[in-house]
Amino acid sequence: MASVGSDPALAAPAARLVSVWRQRDFQVLWSAHTVSEFGTRITFFVIPVLALTTLSASTGQLGLVSAMETLPFLLVGLPAGALLDRWNRRRVMVVADVGRAVAIVVLPVGHLAGVLSVPLLCAVGFAIGLCTVFFDIADQAFLPTVVAREQTPDGNSRLEFSRSTAELAGPSIGGLLLQVVTAPLVLVVNSVSYLVSALLLCLIRIPRTQAPQPAVRASMRSQIAEGLRFVFRHRTLRSLALATGISNLVGLGGALGAVLTAYALRDLGLSPGELGLALSVGNCGALLGAALSSRLIRLVGLGPVLVAAKSMSGIAVLVLATAAPARAVLTLSVATGIMACGITVYNISQVSLRQAITPTGLQGRMNASVRFAIWGTRPVGALAGGYLGSVLGTRLTLWTIAGIGLLSCLPLIATEDVRTLRAFPSLLLD
What angle do the packed helices 59-84 and 363-375 form, to 10 degrees? Predict the structure, then answer.
């Protein structure tokens, strides 16, 4: 791992630090991050649509496809964090991008060869998810190498805005693209986007990017255990992990994602383009959230902002559940706007908080442990959402999702260290 002295950004006096937007390496990292995130979210939207429109998949099968996309976070998220504290993180991100580019091409080829099937969609979704595990954990742990530690909240706010926007805008862009070209062609374009991201990462001019420390002799099991102990013994990290894990269980990557496509296209009678339009309009809420985040924290404090932002996803699903075919586009736009605003504010705040209270040497394992907790619930939620959607119907399932989503803020409310937090703690310098 690169020492503090080897990082040019850290070597500069604090008074000479320039905005992250004026730092070339951060600009390149942000560009690669944004391209990769949008490619992933569009892919994860297009694959279920492909299953629904081409293979006439059931709601339960859609839930299975969605679950396979996030299952790797549950299976390999923890060892990935330990490995990334030993490996070159930029190199891992490049390999992950190339791996996803290769995996996604399998679907257009399978479509042309007439062998496209739900099992093939599951296999490709799992492969893309596996690469995404390593990319996402390395991405968060790599940021403190590119910018000074004092600037990680600033840099992270930019990266988290891109991630939140991609998670919400990716489906809308995917829906609009499906109105112009076929799903297999959209996937080919996404494959190219991953290669662009890999090329950009190779342009970052960091001489030593988190190389393994020769002195580290701990086994992977002990490193994983250390990361888990650090997260779940730390009251603030534990409450953030619990709140986000519950939310993700029923969110876009979980139960909601499993039923949203069937609800919009089958029950409300929307086309993929109309669904994309509704999501695109609603995603303006992400811009509002990014613009208001810092101001809200200064005005009412970090803790209350985290609690309020976390509850907004549940409120959004309540609105979504009231949609009728005659006003479906408007209702989906409003619901998406509320959700986009809340997710953006929450992610910018909680990820910056996590990075601020975690030493450099534990960043990879902390990210992996938290991702294990918060993303590991997604495949469970997707399977449950698909099952409930097929048994109870999509609308009743949405009411259930909304209720659980509103309860996700309880761990934050119950933790005094979070509830009363006014601002970000002083950044740890290892």
Answer: 170
